[in-house]
Amino acid sequence: MSQVNANSFYDASGTSNAVLYGVAAPTNSMSFRNRIINGDMRIDQRNAGASVAITTSDNYITDRFFGIVSANSKLTGQQNAGSVTPPAGFSNYLGMTVASSANVTVGATDTYVIGQQVEGYNMADFAWGTASAIPVTLSFWVRSSVTGTFGGSLRNSGATRSYPFTYTISAANTWEQKSVTIAGETSGTWLATNGIGIRLLFGLGVGSTLSGTAGSWSSANYVSATGATKLIETNSATFYITGVQLEAGSVASPFERRDYGRELAMCQRYCYGQNNSAGQAYYWFGTGAGSSTTSAFGMVQFPVTMRSSPTATFSAANTFFLDPGITNFTSVVIDQKGVNGGACTFTGGSGMTAGYGGRFLSDNTDAAFIIWSAEL
Asked: Phi, psi (5° rounding) for residue 242?
């Protein structure tokens, strides 16, 4: 058996880290190279593949990826919209479709974007805002019915520092891989907490006021690059993206493929979707107990510690069931919640006994759901 001892390995030039099995070794760790979560769009806890109408409030399409627009009823998003074949090695993508009657003219302050916010804990080693700031590389696969120079940006939490970037889509309806290297930012405030570290945005139509010169950092709130193509102005246009990766260094390495269980757990830090969209009989939410003859509470233990105490959205009270035999609740509210679990209070039922425990379920085949959200 041979043994090689060395402090460093470089490529033939003697200036860059060596490439091992197609991967350029980063200066820090080979694990968690990609700071984007669910970059291959595999996980969709909220919508289970259903289409999402993008509104003037942030709407999550696939896990961790949101869309926001200046006008409603103009744009929809969906996991695997259009059912095209993804790039080799991928099974899913995020698809955006402009409404057939959108007829949008982008105003100076309008924004039509998709993106993801990276938690400060997950980018603190970039050392942005200091003299030790390191560069990063953004890479992704994209396909669009519209060609041209497209734009996007990276911003800090306060939107006081931004880096507009561009990339070119050369052929319509063809998957193309893109890469953009961004200089490390030595100025501004960049959170290294559970707040927003980096906001990554892809522009689908951004007005002139919110667009800046590509390729450099600016002390302005730029969402995209000046002169970028406005997809939203073409009725029925499509834009598909997958394999999104943001990593330390100046070279795009192959997409980091994490196992499904780990990727799901990473998503559940921000969203835990208890979603019985298939109408499974007696879908399990947690445990419960009676608090009176007409009321009860149900308890949920989160599978991972969430980023912060979550908010919750849920189906109608009568879609839930407390076994044994308590149904027909008329109201439900979130009673208590924290980063490790939450509790719902149900009222208006009948036949309950105070102090009796039971299973917290969906009512037979009802598509009951609770979406716990701790998004940035």
From this structure: -160, 175
